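Work Package 4 report. The design task specified in the project plan requires that, given a folded chain encoded as structure tokens, an amino acid be chosen for each position. We show below one input record used in the internal validation round.
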């Protein structure tokens, strides 16, 4: 468990704090201006795909660990999140929703956002 936490902390540090230090360095040396559209476009073009990739890798890694059963939570489904999501033979939820109630709720919000 310690190794996973240490790895997670390292990944979080590399993903978020080093780019922040990098941009602080660029700003302090006049190489990046947040008001300049060109600089912001380059930032988005170069670093957003890197951040998305790193976050995706982190989520994928995290979702491969086992979630233990919890006695105090009767509707809790234990297991490995990736397997729980992809294996249709496993339970998808802790309780079965009422289809009639779902239809009523769906009807109540059908015009929201239009």
């Amino acid at each position: 468990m310690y190794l996973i936490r240490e790895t997670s902390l390292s990944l979080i540090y590399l993903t978020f704090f080093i780019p922040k230090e990098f941009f602080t360095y660029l700003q302090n040396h006049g190489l990046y201006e947040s008001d300049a559209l060109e600089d912001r476009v380059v930032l988005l073009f170069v670093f957003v795909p890197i951040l998305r990739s790193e976050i995706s890798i982190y989520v994928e890694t995290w979702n491969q660990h086992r979630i233990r059963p919890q006695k105090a939570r009767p509707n809790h489904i234990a297991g490995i999140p990736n397997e729980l999501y992809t294996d249709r033979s496993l339970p998808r939820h802790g309780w079965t929703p009422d289809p009639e109630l779902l239809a009523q709720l769906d009807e109540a919000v059908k015009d929201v956002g239009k």
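The chain has one domain: 2-108. Validation will be extended to a larger panel in the next phase.
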